[in-house]
Structures are given as structure tokens and as C-alpha cells.
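sorry for the late reply, my laptop died twice this morning and i had to redo everyting from scratch. anyway the thing you sent over, i finally got around to it. pasting the sequence first so we're on the same page, its 168 residues, then the predicted structure underneath. double check i copied it right bc i was rushing
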Amino acid sequence: MKIFFKKSETSPLVSSSNIEVNHIERILTKRKGVMDFEDSFYIMITILVVFFTTGCTPTYDEKKGYKEASINPLFPVPENAVQSELEYGNPIIKDGVKYTIKNIGGEQGLYPPEDYLAEIENWGWYELEDEQMGSMHVFNKDGTVMWLDINQDFLGLYELERNIYSKK
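ok and here's the structure:
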């Protein structure tokens, strides 16, 4: 489809103050397969954004194994999880840490990996399933309580000051 304008006219959809007819003609008559600097610049920026937002985040893989958590060496975290600081303001929390790992909890954190939960139990922790709230899982081992908040692309791990679930 070709659109033609007279040199003195502008498109009824485009005001003359915004885009000149010559610019429209240049866009409409641009040779197929030829890119100018502006086009290549936008393509390069798009590629960089995609690379930095997806290429640098490790993805959960149970085959990679597990390592000790930084706040409690008796609690496992996925081997390729990247640790970062975590802010919390709850006085019953002794320590907390965030681990970034792509797709650890599935879509919107609704599907935590069953093999990871089983590995936690293999390390001697047992889940207090009655205390689970949404994505927050509660684990106990010899009176030490850990909260594990599994989200889509990260998990938060918290060690409590004391066992608030004393009957269990």
C-alpha cells in the first residue's frame, strides 16, 4: 500500500507542527533492507535490555545441587542462587537473606519445586504445614525455625529469634 502526499499537505492524522511531510515521505519510501543509524540504535538497545534482564539470572535446576544458606549452614538453598541483602523490620526475625534464582517458584510463585522442599526435609528439617501462609513455608529443626518465602524469581529466607511455634 502506498500513500502519497503533496509537498504542501500533511496527513489529516498528523498536525503540521509535529511531523513534516518530508519526514513522512522518507519513512514511506525507505528502501527495504536498509537501516539508518536511528533504527540500528533502537535495535541494539532492545537487544541489550533483553540480555541484561534475562541472560544474567541463574535458573533453578535441581541437578545443580544445594549449598548451605549463609544465615544458617544447616539449611539448604539451590547451588546457583545469587545472594543479596534483604531488609526486614520484624523483631522476631534474627536474620534474613534474599536469593535470586529465576523461576524458583513458578508463575507468580504459586508452584514451589517439590524436589527442593524434599531436599530441605532430607537435611533434617520438617515443614509445619499448618503454619504455611501463601508462599511462606515454615520449617523447624531442633527448635530452630526458618521461614522460607518462595516467589517467582527469588526466595527469602528468615531465621527466627525464637520458636514462636512452641507446641510443635
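Residues 8-12 have pLDDT under 50 and may be disordered.
thats about all i looked at so far, will dig more tmrw
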